[in-house]
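Quick one: structure tokens for this chain, please?
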Amino acid sequence: MWQRIQTLYLLIVAGLMGAMFFMDFATVTVGSVLPAGTTQMVDEEGTITRVTVPEGVEQEIVFGLWGVSQNGQRVVATVYMGILVALTMGVALVTIFLFRKRGVQVRLCFVQAVLLLGIEGFVALYIYKLKEGLEAMGGMFAIRYSLADLLPIVALIFVYLAFRGITKDIALVKSLDRIR
């Protein structure tokens, strides 16, 4: 079990999903992007105008795994995305321990791929909705994305590599059965 490379790939997938529990996906600073009291020269068309940033206007919106928080208070709950991440991590760990049932492992790799695409879809949807809401409110804002936005895609690559390793094992076992 532990000597197979797909076990390592699946452990990496579980580790990446575990890391998503502790990372924020995006941080938005609403209000002044520049320090208070400074002047910025920008226009809609790129021409130069004068904009003075007032003091004390900043708000911070944090998009994490379990919700979107504004200044420390949860505004929108994203529980379904958290459940998907936990489920993906659990399926990866279960897949490791089903090493004798390679057909089931292949199916579980497909399930993991669908779950990871769902997680990435949730991340993209929530970031899009957050950005859309901020643009509708008007004003200045700055979005700082995180590495956690890309973790499902990296995990998807490792699930594919695990799938390839499992199918190679299946082919090896079939070839050895033909030799006997």
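The first strand starts at residue 26 and ends at 30.
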